[in-house]
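Schema walkthrough. Field components (list of strings):
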Amino acid sequence: MITANRLPAQLPPPRWQQLWRESVTDPLELLRLLGLEAQAGRLLPGADTGFALRVPRGFVARMRPGDPADPLLRQVLPLAAELAPQPGFAADAVGDLAARSAHGVLQKYAGRALLIATGSCAVNCRYCFRRHFPYAEETAAAGRWREAVAAIAADPGIDEVILSGGDPLSLSDAKLTELTAALRDIPHVRRLRLHTRLPVVLPERVDAGLLAWLDALPLQKVVVLHANHANEFDDRVDAACAALRDRGCTLLNQAVLLRGINDDADTLAALSERAFAAGVLPYYLHQLDRVFGAAHFEVADEAALALVEALRQRLPGYLVPRLVREIAGEKSKTPL
Ligand SMILES: *Cc1c(COP(=O)(O)O)cnc(C)c1O
Ligand code: SF4
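Field assembly_structure (string):
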């Protein structure tokens, strides 16, 4: 007799994985979807880089058709401008290779260990330092977490583990469960922090399986989202944020200051207000990491400081993000 035990049902992949797989990866298709075929001449020539276009269709749906300056589109569209000469911009802009302390573990700051959980993201952001990091060898999940967990267990000074990447929520629930099964036995680890853009760009990721994983965690949970513009939020993102808060997660947002995308006071104020409407407090506003290919997004420090001062004059203090830059070798993010 065939029983359920002997023939386990083949579970379909979760819906978010299906949606991720269906992401737009062809720049010309993206332009077509938005009625912007005329922009094709500005695209990065095809043979580039290993950092291809990738964007979930739900995020594309939040872009304004017919607008080549759309702030969401500009974050993801590979443009020929990336090839312009960029003095001062480098491949490893933030000293990640020097800070590696074990397989996939970065330890730059007191009390906190950051795991490069995976190299994958749901979206490829053109300004990201990740475009040059040798992730294939450096992810903690690739070693089934063992070396990373051993390094954390051996250092009683670490009370917070940060899952970053890449995007840790691009890992399966099973992989995440495997990690936390190992972490929860380390007595000095009290907090788990996730640095993730997935609840914004692919909110379907926040599904029953993920919430069950969070529910079962005996740690304080902080989720640092990444949205750069108010238009990135919609009803689905609101629902994902509400579900995360229901599971006891503290929600923060970090944004990157990006020329032509969010470098004016109205846009930044709208981002803070919109994030807070979703129950998310602004945390950092990052000055761009000076990675090769991103120079056309850079905002000068004086302009950045003036923007934050303008925010301070019009928003409650808790809606004003801290303007910081990451400087290799420093013991914290550096306030401007
Ligand atoms: C940014 C970062 C952190 C987190 O810093 P916070 O100021 O606590 O948000 C931790 N570790 C590394 C390696 C980082 O780059
Ligand atoms: S790490 Fe964050 S900023 Fe970089 S590509 Fe992934 S989602 Fe975008």
